[in-house]
Amino acid sequence: MATLAFVLLIPVAMMLGVVALCLLLRAERASPALVPLARLLFRLNAWSMADVFAIGVIVSLVKLSSMAEIVPGTAFWAYIAFTVTFLLAMTRLDRLTVWHAVDRLRAAP
Fold first, then answer.
1. CA pair distance 28, 46, nearest whole angstrom
2. By CB atoms within 10 Å of each CB, which of 13, 41, 51, 81 scores lowest?
C-alpha cells in the first residue's frame, strides 16, 4: 500500500493539484481552496517517489535482461511518460511565483 501511495497515488494527486492550481490562478478569482491546495502541493513534493521507482524499474529491466528476454510493454512506457511529464511539471512550478500570485489574488478586492 505504501508503494502504491508513494509511486502512483501521490504523484497523480499532485498532477491534479497542479492543474487545479493553474486553473484557479488563471481564473484570477480568490478561492478558499487556493492556499490549502498550494500548501498541500508543496508539502507532498517530498513524498512523491515516481522518479525513484522509474529508475529502479529501468535498472531491474537491465539486470534481468541478461537472464531472460524482456520486452517493455505499454504500461512501462505509459509510466515512463507519466514520470517525465510529472518531473517536468514539478521542476517548472516555481514556489515563489505561485505564492506571489496567491497573495495578489487574496489582496485583490
1. 28
2. 81
